[in-house]
Amino acid sequence: MTILVIAEHDNAVLKPATRNAIAAAARIGGDIDVLVAGAACAAVAEAAARIAGVTRVRLADAAQYADHGAENLAALVVANAAAYSHILAPATAAGKNFLPRVAALLDVAQISDIVEVVSPDTFVRPIYAGNALATVQSADAVKVITVRGTAFEPAGEGAAAPIEALAGAADAGISRLVGRELTVSARPELTAARVIVSGGRALGSNENFHAVLEPLADKLGAAVGASRAAVDAGYAPNDYQVGQTGKIVAPELYIAVGISGAIQHLAGMKESKVIVAINKDPEAPIFQVADYGLVADLFDAVPALLAAID
Amino acid sequence: MKILVPVKRVVDYNVKVRVKSDGSGIDLANVKMSMNPFDEVAIEEAVRLKEAGIATEVVAVSAGLANSQETLRTALALGADRAILIETDVELQPLAVAKLLKAVCEKESPQLVIPGKQAIDDDSNQTGQMLAALLGWPQATFASKLVVNADKTAAAVTREIDGGLETIEIALPAVMTTDLRLNEPRYATLPNIMKAKKKPLETTTPAALGVDVAPRLKTLKVAEPARRSGGVKVADVAELVEKLKNEAKVI
């Protein structure tokens, strides 16, 4: 049994979610190959080779993989799928984009967003915005799976595995990247942060959102998140959104500021180790999941909290 | 150009679902059902393209139980021109739906298929990508902006990705899945709901389309997630900081 994990990277740096997917692969058991597809991405392959549990890295370094377009990446994975019993990718925007394409081309089901490996053919995944956990069994010859990163401890460093070059497939030529507009932030990445300070609609404006939350986040070394309401109101960029339709996070400490706690938001953060809620409505649903709740006006409480932390 | 919009009947997003006590699934008896929210966004986008003179016809399609007709009528009331129901009582998984939609696409030859990015019941986020794969068409997932070029041979789509946005150009025909920020769906007005009753709704079956829809994944068990143990309310900021430092030890 050999498992293929598809690495996520930006041609320079391996994304941490890859380590969680490798950890899930280790739970399935068997040799683990990591596919690094990109352009001028040798450094990524070297980083992947040093992850504990990796048997071999397969490097497809070609221009048509530079932008990680789903069409070309899926074709490459399918062309090399015969050797594998399981094909895994992180359940990130990138993994969710290309992996179902792989599954359909192989004529197998995909198991999305697994949070637990029961056996090599049986997995647990959340449904209904995390309000239920389904245990599903696949009878397909190849199991195609996306892995919820926060459910698996990231794999650490190990001895360097060999790197083999892999020939690329032809460029499909039906899609091309025009450009990317990435949110610039000096803070930790949301899905990997140890502490997250998250704000909701109660912040009232874009200015308040940044002025109130960022000093606290900086003091705690935290990432800043947002509820969908705050994003839709334009207080924070889209990629700050925590929830069923945004990012799934599980930090050690999640501080929800002015967030009511709608089902869709809870689905994205209720696996956090400690949840703190600051809200002036004592009936807000967020208090039902919060370990520590403070009923107070956030505009008083957050500056006071900032002052009280030394 | 013709646009095909797949829509799904799901538990209303406001409903707090309950797991059946025997662990066989979710209790759907007497629960309010609605159109999947991402599909409302998809219908809205298709209707706006029609209003802008880019699309000529919007066809809504749904697969599932006979009562998915209600969801298709909603789509018609929102501005779709006609509807196709693929009726079956088999539990449909994304790969089966993608195959059914492929068969419909081969008959209807749309230039653009707009599914929602995911259904809020199974949370799979697969069908659009699988359909694009089966058709050999390009895909643009998690779209927050669509611009179709003048001769309707390509489109620029802005996608929501981790870390920000990216814009890709795809050749048409293509599949584009919607993210919530693509648009704000309109409400169906009463006159439009009445008119929708007269719009054509064709019914077919997986067998008539020649598609095997047998489920590939077997659900062994559905369980409630572990409940978080009840927390405490603290009196003030000082107590909060004290608890975080000494009890939870997270700061």
From TrEMBL, chain A:
SUPFAM superfamilies: Adenine nucleotide alpha hydrolases-like, DHS-like NAD/FAD-binding domain
Keywords: Electron transport, FAD, Flavoprotein, Transport
Residues holding FAD: 201, 227-228, 241-245, 258-265, 279
GO molecular function: electron transfer activity; flavin adenine dinucleotide binding
Keyword Chloroplast applies: no
Family classification: Belongs to the ETF alpha-subunit/FixB family.
Top-level taxon of the source organism: Bacteria
Assembly and binders: Heterodimer of an alpha and a beta subunit.
Cofactor: FAD
Name of the protein in question: Electron transfer flavoprotein subunit alpha
Role according to the record: The electron transfer flavoprotein serves as a specific electron acceptor for other dehydrogenases. It transfers the electrons to the main respiratory chain via ETF-ubiquinone oxidoreductase (ETF dehydrogenase).
Domain Electron transfer flavoprotein alpha/beta-subunit N-terminal, residue spans: 3-181
InterPro entries cross-referenced by the UniProt entry: DHS-like_NAD/FAD-binding_dom, ETF_a/b_N, ETF_a/FixB, ETF_alpha_N, ETF_asu_C, ETF_asu_C_CS, Rossmann-like_a/b/a_fold
Gene Ontology terms describing biological process: fatty acid beta-oxidation using acyl-CoA dehydrogenase
Cross-referenced PANTHER family: ELECTRON TRANSFER FLAVOPROTEIN ALPHA (PTHR43153), ELECTRON TRANSFER FLAVOPROTEIN SUBUNIT ALPHA, MITOCHONDRIAL (PTHR43153:SF1)
Source organism (scientific name): Rhodocyclus tenuis
Note describing how the cofactor binds: Binds 1 FAD per dimer.
TrEMBL record, chain B:
Annotated keywords: Electron transport, Transport
Cross-referenced CDD domains: ETF_beta (cd01714)
Cofactor: AMP
Alphabetical list of InterPro entries matching this protein: ET-Flavoprotein_bsu_CS, ETF_a/b_N, ETF_b, ETF_beta_N, Rossmann-like_a/b/a_fold
GO biological process: carboxylic acid catabolic process
A molecular function GO annotation: electron transfer activity
Pfam families attached to this UniProt entry: ETF
Residues annotated as signal peptide: none
Electron transfer flavoprotein alpha/beta-subunit N-terminal domain location: 23-213
SMART domains: ETF (SM00893)
Family in the record: Belongs to the ETF beta-subunit/FixA family.
Function (record text): The electron transfer flavoprotein serves as a specific electron acceptor for other dehydrogenases. It transfers the electrons to the main respiratory chain via ETF-ubiquinone oxidoreductase (ETF dehydrogenase).
Record's subunit section: Heterodimer of an alpha and a beta subunit.
PANTHER family attached to this UniProt entry: ELECTRON TRANSFER FLAVOPROTEIN BETA-SUBUNIT, ELECTRON TRANSFER FLAVOPROTEIN SUBUNIT BETA
Protein name: Electron transfer flavoprotein subunit beta
Species whose genome carries this gene: Rhodocyclus tenuis
